[in-house]
Amino acid sequence: MTQKRRILLVDDELAIVKIVGKRLEVAGYEVLVAMDGEEALAKARLGRPEALILDLMLPKRNGLEVCAELKQDPKTRHIPIIIFTGKGKDMDEKLCRECGVDAYITKSPNTRELLEQVETLLARALLARESPRADGAAPAAT
């Protein structure tokens, strides 16, 4: 039996957590949930998720702060981060890319795009872990 891939879903809206969490579970993922930025940081470090779905507007620490901190930490910088937000794309998407976000998706009732992006980023992360580095060093351990 293969182990389920673990996703950390971070959103302070319970309805979003329930809908997206259920869709991820049906797609075969184990879902960890955090409802604020501080909880997200703790669960990202202790729960060892393979990807993170992160809202921008969160209590305690916003999504950009969470992303920046995780991307600066050698133990968590490899985790793909998808911003999943109700805010428009313009300025926020640029700031997110500068922070190290791997994908930016606007919330909608159809989670197909989100699930496709999770699959793409997980496949890319797996390939990066298995591929030898150009400098001859071993791939980073996770």
Topology:
Elements: E1 6-10, H1 14-26, E2 30-34, H2 37-46, E3 51-54, H3 63-72, E4 81-85, H4 90-99, E5 103-106, H5 112-130
Parallel strand pairs: 1-2, 1-3, 3-4, 4-5
Helix pairs in contact: 2-3
What does this protein structure show overall?
By secondary structure, the chain is of the alpha/beta class. It has a single domain (6-129), classed as 3-Layer(aba) Sandwich (Rossmann fold). Helix content is 44%, strand content 16%. The chain has a five-stranded parallel beta sheet with strand order 2-1-3-4-5, sandwiched between helices. Helix 2 runs parallel beside helix 3. The longest helix has 19 residues, at 112-130. The two termini are 21 Å apart. The mean pLDDT is 83.
In short:
Helix content is 44%, strand content 16%.
Biggest sheet overview:
5 strands, parallel
Report the uncertain regions: none
Shape-level CATH architecture: 3-Layer(aba) Sandwich
Judging from the principal axes of the Cα atoms, what is the shape? globular
User: What is the number of beta strands?
Assistant: 5
Mean pLDDT across every amino acid position: 83
What's the CATH topology label?
A: Rossmann fold
